[in-house]
Write a structure and sequence with these properties.
alpha+beta; MetI-like fold
Amino acid sequence: MSFFSPSSSGKVEPASGEPMVWFSGMWLGIGLLMIVTLLGVIVKNGLTIFWPSRVVEVELVEGSPASIQGAKVLAGEVRKIQEKRIQSETGGTAREKQLFVGNRDAYGFGFRYLDEADIAKLSEPEGIVVAERVEYGDLIGYPVALKLADGEVRADDPGFFDRLKKVVAAGNARRHEIESIEKVQIGRINQRMGSLRLAERKAELEGRLTEDYRTGIAADLAELQRQYEILAGKAANLRAEQKSGLFVYRLPTGTEREIPVGDLMQFYFPNQIGFFTRVGHFFSEVWHFLSREPREANTEGGVFPAIFGTFVMTLLMSVAVVPFGVVAAIYLREYSKQGPLVRAVRIAVNNLAGVPSIVFGVFGLGFFVYFVGGSIDSLFFPERLPTPTYGTGGILWASLTLALMTVPVVIVSTEEALAAVTRGAREASLAAGASKWQTIQRIVLPASVPGIITGLVLAMARGAGEVAPLMLVGVVKLAPTLPLDTVAPFIHLERKFMHLGFHIYDLGFQSPDSEAAKPMVFATTLLLIGLVVTLNAAAILLREKLRRKYASSAF
């Protein structure tokens, strides 16, 4: 490409329109820079929470307002250093550090801002420990002793840390066993007891409830209640064992406190471990974040239920939106008589893509939940009324609502793909004796699959990130059970679910501890972006594979 062209006078002048090319390239570069910067901020803030930072001990100047309970010494992780404006006649700015001090049960807060002018001395003591607890966030302090059933073990004892590792591992094993008993075994018993009561109620409504049937139900319930009491007693004994040992520690302020060893999930010494140990701890924390359930108002623990709910909802939405979108596009392009009515329908479809998502949520609530779900409950689940089964929000209605919201994208992309198939390919098929439907089925649709998948990619990208309509049709802050499990019928489309987008909203705007929630917001945002990119990448790879396969029939 030449940047210059000869003029009528023989002089070489810049080619017409060339400044606009550079202008467009400049804005493209600015856009890419903004995207990279945004992703960089998310990655930095989303991953640093998993890295085990060093803990500093801060000695404050006399009379500092930042002291806790009158103590001159604090300890914690430096999370942020920032400038602040000084409120005085002279004005100016000063630097302050945000310190994560932990021990929320002792202090009543987890973070503290310290002016650099209030800091007399900084050190990194090697004996300080950071421990993750079931409640109240992290513990930061100095180990003092272990009080166990077979005696007390002091922190200066050579076998103290090996003993602490063993009792913490034993506590984690008991906690997992308790969860298995209460969520799986007792959950199945409760489900069976509920099914028996519903069967009795259904028989009563249908007029076939006899005394023998009632007696059989009562006997089955009694047996299940006996099994329940055995399991509940076993879980209670395990909980008592969790409280049998105590971990004694000293706060940086000097106060000694005790905590049941069973409440400790893990511990490490941040100022003693090396680089490779930190890397191992980093990946361990990432795995816990991906595989565990949330705790402490979603500010602790993991996001596995939200990952699972987002994936299943997006999958169900894709299964619903593709058939409707493709069938509608085939009718509009191949069968309908082109005229004012069809043009009006196309305009309506295009306009649907611009309707606010919350409007679709209101429609889904009124039509899918109240009308369709209420009708299903009246026809098939009368014994459960007035408690709704499908007449309340659930993952099925959420998926259908988002499918309705994204179907215009699939229709438009499918129509464009159908129109791209050459007239010669259609006429050759018809000339060979194929019917119109056979031509569409065997020639047009295979060549249009890449375009259809393009629409699916766009639909998945939008649907996976939507939050507003989901708040009306099924998403919740914390879902006790997953939509898929090992309990028959295994797929529970009526259940409510967690979603990464709503999880971000809940952490950012509804969390009681905003400072503790900020790192989780970035981590969950990074995870949502990663999930959307993964789903889209899989669809794009499939599209490219099909495009190469049907390249000859598309032209």
